[in-house]
Amino acid sequence: MKLYRTTIDGFTLIELVITVSIAAILFTIGMPSYQKMVMDKRMATTRETLITDLEIAKSEAMTRNQSVILCRHSGETATPTACDNTAEWENGWVVFVDTNGDSNVDANELLRVTAGLGAGLNIDYSKTSIAFSSRGFTGTTNGTFRICDGRGYQHGHKLILSTSGFIQTENATDCPS
User: Which parts of the chain fold into alpha helices (H)?
Assistant: First the structure.
């Protein structure tokens, strides 16, 4: 008579409970760090996009020897190629060459459109638009962009735009928490 040995491969209930418990603990510890990393990346991306668009506007104004305007638009609900003075900066902005000097986006003047930032981010700037002259100056349009989210001042960014078109970055110490 032959005896056959059978083996059962798999996990016991105790092994499964321990594995799931360890995974839950690691997930609980790691998730806040991951969320912070994602929020930091969104803030940095927004800051860099705004800096890039300001520098493009300045550069194009000097290259074309014409006024270039960066203005806010109302995002998805309106034509993204038109300025909207009632919109918020976080809804997006438009960069265009103002060839006829009317401060409106006309055919063939559009250079760049930046879409809205999504929920959670806020951009505060007191002016509705910024016009760069053919020399790269903003004239009297100087001010500070403040980029914030709900985490408070230690995570915010400031972009200080001088009348000469120079952009300086700092941490925003006045973001609401």
Answer: 13-64
Hey, what are 132's tokens? 């760069």
d(CA 11, CA 31): 27
Average pLDDT, integer, range 48-62: 93
Using a cut of 0.70, tell me whether the model's pTM lies above it.
yes
pLDDT digit string, tens, across residues 59-98: 999 999 999 999 888 766 555 567 888 888 888 889 999 8
Helix (H, G, I), strand (E, B) or coil at 116: coil
CATH of domain 13-172: 3.55.40.10
Measured CA to CA in angstroms, residue 17 lies from 20, 29, 121, 128 at distances of 5, 18, 40, 58
Amino acid identity for residue 30 in this structure = G
